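Quick one before lunch.
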Amino acid sequence: MAAIVVPVEEFDLVVFGGTGDLSRRKLLPGLFHRFAAGQAPSGALIIGAARAALDRAGFRRFAREALEEFVAPEYRPEEKVAAFLEMLDYQQIDAEGEGGWPALGRKLKGRDGRPRAFYLSVAPQIFGPICSRLGKARLVTPLTRVVVEKPLGRDLASARALNDQLAATFDEHQIYRIDHYLGKETVQNLMALRFANALFEPLWNAHHIDHVQITAAETVGVGARGGYYDKNGAVRDMVQNHLLQLLCLTAMEPPSHFDPDAVRDEKLKVLKALRPIDGAAVDTEIVRGQYSAGPDGPSYREEAGDPQSGTECFIAIKIGVDNWRWAGTPFYIRSGKRLKARHTEIAIRFRDAPHSIFGDAAGALRGNVLVITLQPNEGIELRLNIKEPGPGGMRIVSAPLDMSFGAAVGAGFRMPDAYERLLMDVIRGDQTLFMRGDEVEAAWAWIDPIIAAFEKGRAAPCPYQPGGEGPMESHILLHRDGRRWREIA
Ligand code: NAP
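Model of the NAP complex:
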């Protein structure tokens, strides 16, 4: 199966924060891959913008180093690298000052007919100043888009303020709020699986699904970012955005069309159906944790620089979706740092067969599980009960029906990074995989009471050993319901 590349039209992209970490690790390598694949045309113009006193040659050197570090040698033949660097330019600019804007205007002059994107790869505090200066400098054309990333606020009030700042210069159809989890091939495949096959949708409800587990586990700790992380915690860093987005895609009703607003309307309905968790319920439905010191490093509190820190770097939540489809089927989500493995998955656990005709000797019939793995190896697996091969009688074992994408598309296929897909969607003007402002606000509206309860000392973080599966209390959260977490592996 060969991947088909549909080229996008020539475009102009200005990356504010072009010399930053995100640009170096994801944006420049992602753009290069799309160029090398023939999707981004050589007539595209990519302008890095930051305060550093670089010139075009300096930015090209920066980009070359980024490609050498983040693109494997077999994917960067020198002629492609050289041609890509030719597309790059640089503009020294202070987002909060007045210098540099006229020069940026000159670089974009006479190009109003092309798609234009401003990627704000900078701290959210300067989204507002950049947008207002773009407006003032008349750089916003009808074909202009603006791209922003998390953190999109730290509560409902700040998210609204951010949306207002963006809306002062851009229409909602021009605003692309990236959640890179949505750019994962498997996440899009979750929608294909549900809505392109007649097989699953009739079973996709509380009658047939016992529960859903969403896990995002990391092996790394907070490290040098500890002080910054400690102001946010896992609930802001992972739950409000990535995990709730995955929950929405799993739980949403079929949209009438695969178009941006139809999909986002359905996700919004899920967010509005989340059962509120506040007050005493926070203690029973949520477990928080902090890793202790271990052979691989100091404790969370040491890395956070606060021996009394009450911020979580592990969280597990039992969530109810209060609608007809999901009444009685909980969604358990968890995310944590310094765990056993780096692994992100959505697991749909179907109900057990109502009766076993095979008798005790066959063994227990476990409910089928559909597992959508986002990382490290994207793929989809359906666990079925089959007869154990061989002449040993009728014994039932669970076996995977495996669709790892690497195997499906053949050897030598490189799975594109989520940013590659999302950057091309920005140029194509397709917002389906980007969050709408009201979605971001609805997610914060659900999260705010939870954070307020944490601040009053509810669900205080429990210590856990690094390299494991988080605090014991997280296992108890499921055991209480007669269920267990899938192993993090
Ligand atoms: P970073 O490494 O600190 O880079 C910040 C960039 O912004 C630099 O290029 C910096 O260059 C530029 N900058 C800062 N102040 C500026 C100003 N006043 N005017 C113009 N340019 C300015 O940050 P980052 O990690 O790339 O993150 C960028 C944004 O993406 C943040 O909002 C972050 O939360 C978000 N994000 C990052 C990642 C990631 O993997 N890194 C992942 C998700 C989200 P100068 O200092 O030279 O101006």
